[in-house]
Amino acid sequence: MLIQILAHIIAVAITVLRWTCRVTYHDDPRPKLRKNGETYVYSFLHAHQVGLIIGREKGTGAMVSRSKDGELIVPLLKMSGCVPVRGSNRVNRKDRGGRAALHTLVDHVLSGNPAALAVDGPRGPRGRVHKGVALLSQQTGAPVLNLVAISRSRWTATKAWDRMQMPWPFTRIDGYFDVPIYPIEGEKLEAYRQRIEASLQALEVQHDLSESRFNVKGVNAGESVSDDDEDFGRMAA
After folding, report:
1. Which domain holds residue 106?
2. How far apart are CA 86 and CA 182, in angstroms?
3. What is the pLDDT of residues 64-88, one digit of tens each?
């Protein structure tokens, strides 16, 4: 009960904050994709999720963990017009709904709607893209849109693993897109994951150099991420 009350307080607070902020997108590929009848998958850092919820696209399916922390963000997503899809990573090699949630997102994208994943969530390390976004893209053919949200004025949780960023009221939020990343027929999942990670990290280096230095370095070519790593990105921890 307490979590539900807190979740609705957070939802109202962020909704009010959204009304005060101005969001500007740069190099936005979405109009062309929509004109061509293509949907897409948003890929972003866990640190940027508040800024991106403020600039949300209605109808976006967002994966959220089944944890108590994930519960906190569900009312906010619903209030923002997004579609929460619940699922968690494996614990002691037992799946907690992550794969079922991914299948739900696949159906969501195939129906013509976008999806969104905080690709280094829910526990990091910061900047390490987990394989769920690559798998979702491969299974749907939808391109991955890497996006960083940079608030002109912000508070940063410097003690948190993701260095979560909270925009201040009445600030401007700049959303920077990289070019759409498409799956390649016959490409291994790990190779695709590495392409997405390299693009996302380079995008933050270009637009927020001071924060990008906290990202984990990408794995070397040919080195795969362990199956015990997080399977899927998250909208929230």
Report:
1. 2-212
2. 26
3. 877 777 788 899 999 999 999 987 5
